[in-house]
Amino acid sequence: MTSLLPPTPGAAVEPPSPAARPAPRNPADLFWSFTWLALQGFGGVMALVQREVVDKKRWLSREEFLEEWAVAQVMPGPNVVNLSIMIGDRYFGLRGAVAAMAGMLLLPLVLVLLAALAYAHWAAHPAVAGALRGMGAVAAGMVGGMGLKLMPALRQHPLGPVLSGLIAVAAFVAVAWWRIPLPWVLLVLGLLAYGLTWRKVAP
């Protein structure tokens, strides 16, 4: 029986059960959710996934999203597809992974094929070239905004916000300014962050 008395000062308060958090109803919900996300993702869908999955649907916390996104980054293949597979697997195992991946790829693939046919015909038109450049700028801004929104999650990281932020800045400088290939950046900084985190959390 649940006690109606207020908790004793200083007593530990149990966190809410993960089962009480919103979750996709079934694999079909995953499929249509990721289909809708993919159809909105002109120039990049990662920022939209963060807004939809974390802020709106609350299927993941910011910390969980950041962790799964980090894994998706270092795995081969498109980052957002890797992330959709992990989110689907988290809730419904193999069925969920397949449903989320299909939602991310199926209908957008059909539209991309149709768009490719249209682009081959209208590629030289100045209005088309200008529209594509404009969508690229918007996509870059959305990715930057997503990164800023996820920064508060670093407060919960074992390395703390300062050291985590320094590693993030080092990765940005290495890729954007020094033009170091991404696999090398992931290998060096990833192993460094892994080693430092392991030292913090190891018993």
Largest sheet: none
β-strand percent reads under 5%
- What order do the SSEs take from the amino end to the carboxyl end, as H and E? HHHHHHH
Q: Determine Rg (CA atoms, Å).
A: 20 Å
How does the overall form come out from the CA principal axes? Answer: globular
> Which consecutive residue ranges, at least 5 long each, have pLDDT under 50?
1-17
Number of domains: 2
SS summary, helix count = 7
> How many strand units?
0
Global mean pLDDT: 78
First-to-last CA distance: 36 Å
Going by helix content, strand content and strand pairing, the class is: mainly alpha
What is the helix content?
Answer: over 70%
